[in-house]
Amino acid sequence: MVYLNQTAYSKKRTYHFLPKILFGYPSCVTTALVYFSSTQKKMNETWKRFKRDKVALFGGTVIVIVVTAALLAPWVTPYDPHEQFFDGLTLEGAPLPPNKRFPLGTDLLGRDLYTRLVYGARTSLIIGIAANAAAVLVGTLLGIIAGYLGGWVGNAIMRFTDLMMAFPALLLAIALASILTPSLWIVAMVIALVNWVQTARVIYTQTLSIAEQEFIQAARALGATPIRILWVHILPHLIPHIMVWATLGISVTVLFEATLSFLGIGVQPPTPSWGGIIFESQSYFLTAPWLVIFPGISILLFALGFNLVGDGLRDAMDPTQRGRN
Amino acid sequence: MNPLLQVRNLTKHFPSRYGSRNLTAVKAVSLTVNAGETVGIVGESGCGKSTLGKSIIRLFEPDEGTVLFQDKDVLSLEKRALREMRREIQMIFQDPYGSLDSRMTIGAIVEEPLVIHGIGDRATRYKKMLRLLEITGLEQDAANRYPHEFSGGQRQRICIARALALRPKMIIADEPVSALDVSIQSQILNLLVDLKEKFDLSYIFISHDLAVVEHVSDHVAVMYLGGIVETAPTKDLFTRPCHPYTEALIKAIPQPDPLRTRERIVLQGEIPDPENPPSGCAFHPRCPKVMDICKTATPEEKNIGVNETGHLIRCHLY
Amino acid sequence: MQFTHPSSSHSILHVDSLHISFSTNEGRIDVVEDISFFIGSGEIVGLVGESGCGKSVTAMAIMRLNPSPPSSVEYGRIFFKGNDILSLDEGSMRHIRGNRIGMIFQEPMTSLNPTFTIGYQVGEVFRCHLGISQNEANNKTVEMLDLVGIGGAQRRMEQYPHELSGGLRQRVMIAIALACRPELLIADEPTTALDVTVQAQILDLLRTLQSEMNMSVLLISHDLGIVAETCDRVFVMYAGRIVEKASVVELFRNPLHPYTTGLMSSSPRLGQSKKLLPMIPGMVPSPSQRGTGCYFTDRCSKASEYCRHKTPTLEAVGDKHQVACWNYK
Known about the structure:
Chain A has 13 helices and no strands. Chain A is mainly alpha-helical. In chain B, helix 3 (about 105-115) packs across helix 4, helix 4 crosses helix 5 and helix 5 (about 150-165) runs parallel beside helix 6 (about 180-200).
């Protein structure tokens, strides 16, 4: 009843700090320093707890393997990713199943699938991590601003978010990609532009519900500045949600890139990408299943790895989970 | 000597959920707190007592009225000055679970007010924090633990330690013991009484529990539907309740005495919707002594006490 | 049986050495330990204790509503009118629940389904247990709402829970619980969420209905005042055990267990102007850290080493009083 409206009030009052963040506010710097020095201790604790989480460690291992392979691609692969082998195809021109010479078989043009997958990991990593990081960053920022400031700024941001949600993402991506010449970074940017929406929504609702809690009022009663409240009291509660979207989003982005590649507006051939390989060869699924299965497994493991690590991090960062496991 | 805190005609509206009408949560409330005094505010849920407490320190921005704290006009303070003022008036909340940040250690929580106001360096803050834990009866090793590891009573102690960190002159305690078990309530109440003397504090003690309010307060104000209906020194109020609502409230408390003959005035109905308050005296639909005038005219404040600070009441019976 | 209430010819409910445990990550934890009591017909019995003492778990065990796992009844029996409830199959139990044993909960806000009308929810009990038609159920619902003092029953039936105040919602809960005229009503903190003036109304209502229907009531509360005004007999629970049983007059005149006396003196009372309240130091131990012997030892001013090692059993003191304490004399 009466207290329902307290957020309306806090929105009204805490409006003016945005310019101060943007143009450098001395106490903002000190708060940041305090924040990071206190997080040092927390990070050690988090790492200690994370180490005990076997499932998350497995996820971490998968990621490390993929990243290492992608970085060291020329050294861990036997061939060149673009080399078309004459003996990579049958006499009828069909791709070869896994054999001694080509451990995972060959693709439709007689290229070594294993080599292409390892090089494809580079594309997926760049797209998955860069595009997703950008999306999550933009989403989080807009979500927090909308949730904490509220008022017409918040409304405007959220209406825009709704608009983006309602708008077919693929259509937008096609439009963007046809204006700009497709390249790896452009594709990453296009994906980021489409994918920030979900994060923004989640962070917005979370910020709203945290801002309504009594400890936020308690902090205000102590004389805390809006920036401090945002930084010290709201942000740490959002990190688990950011974490989840940052990791879940990676799998979504990898698949989105695959879709774009299929439509011919993704990473351009012959640059290998996991999604690209699947879509190139999807009509041969029955005759050459390895062409779909191996990249599929790669995407799956890669996304799973990030999900497991994300879950593990979320738990490890939550003080109420301390002493469990 | 001027009183520590003077509230005059404080009014707080909230926009109604459906927009058409304002909801008046606090209606022209006046209140005086002298240094070293505890003023109790009692009332049932939704009577505006918490809103009143929060409006005084501007957690809600009041719409009308004045608040003078040590002769400074609180409502006209600039942001920076308001933050300074908040050093002097602290607040303890009802819910010791919700009012502590679950991701901060107890040490960080209790030190936070010192950090915010830039008091001392890291080492002195740490020392102060340990001292505060000791004062409020917590173990030193609490500093490195998190709120969820503590029981309700201990958490309320943490809240008290945090409120004391800035050595305030006044603490507004909003239902500080309602969420606690009976045997823990008395511990917290005793701690509050004890600290009041040690640190020369004044309290505004907000509660729905008359027995608790009687126990801690020097003065009591009874609220009904946003307005104060009766104010009097504690003893006076409980021995000679004058407003029919106060009387009914006191009579409604179950007494731990099975042989007591019950002379309960069971009030009919419940508190009306504050978005749509009754005309005249807000209490008239439930009042056992209702007269015709009550339905039309809002009663003025009258002093029926023997001296100046006496016994203030808003009722047509007097 | 140690003593009987004047009006109880026979017992409605008999709980015999009930022992309930919960399995958790840290292993099995005993929550309710070996409690026995009975409720005579037409009697109001109070079960007093602080949070975590096992009073709600006991109530839920009588209804067999404790989720299992994690909870399980280690041993003990619960007789309702001579039948062992714990050995009944789920079908027969459903017939008892809501029909012969009614229950009201603390939170009238969440115990009603927000998506159905009041009329539907009260009527549901009739349809479930009496198997009567919608029309008849409606008539009975109106009757029931009148009985619990809800004016304008016809109009109220069309309303949804959120349109009612807390007091009215609790009245609806009472109507649901009493719809089938149960022989036993379990009221778990029925007025804790309500304001004092409304609490008085609800307690009055409960008392009137109890004597009209001559049903037995198990009233669970942490408030000694409510218990003193409402109950005939009282059990005091601490850390999963009953530490004192007495008729209400006897208990308040002559509390014997240090926990009971502590509770009574530590809650502020009207007209009692002491500067500091007497208090019970420390806090209720969590079920996994209750220790050995008498669980109150650490907070007791009279405790000796003996108390820590030897568990006291309920001993009769006079014919209306039992206490589990080594030092009651």
